[in-house]
Amino acid sequence: MGIDLLDLVKRCALGEAAAWTAFLPSFQEIGRRTLRPFRLPEADSEDVLSDVLVSLYAGGLRQFRGNTVGELVNFLRQVVHNKGIDFLVGRRVQGLTSLPNEDQGDHTDTRIPGPSHPESTDFSDVLSEEECLEFLRQELEKVRRDDRELFLMKVRGLKEREIAQQTGKPLGTVSAQIARLWDRLRRRLRERGC
Amino acid sequence: MERLELLGQRLAKDLDREGIRPPGDQCVAPGRLEEFLSGTLDEEGRAYIEGHLGDCLICLNDLVVLRDCLHGVAAPEEVSSRLAARLGELMRQRKPSHPRASLVEMALRPFTLRIPAGWAVAMTAASILVTFLILPTFQRQMVPPGWERPSVSPPRPMTGLSQPSERGTPRTIAGVVIQVRKVTVGPTEAHVVTLRDSAGVQYSIFVWGPLPTQEGDSVQVEGVFQEIRDASGAVTYKGVATVFRPATPR
Question: How many C-beta atoms lie closer than 10 Å to residue A165's C-beta?
Answer without folding.
Answer: 14
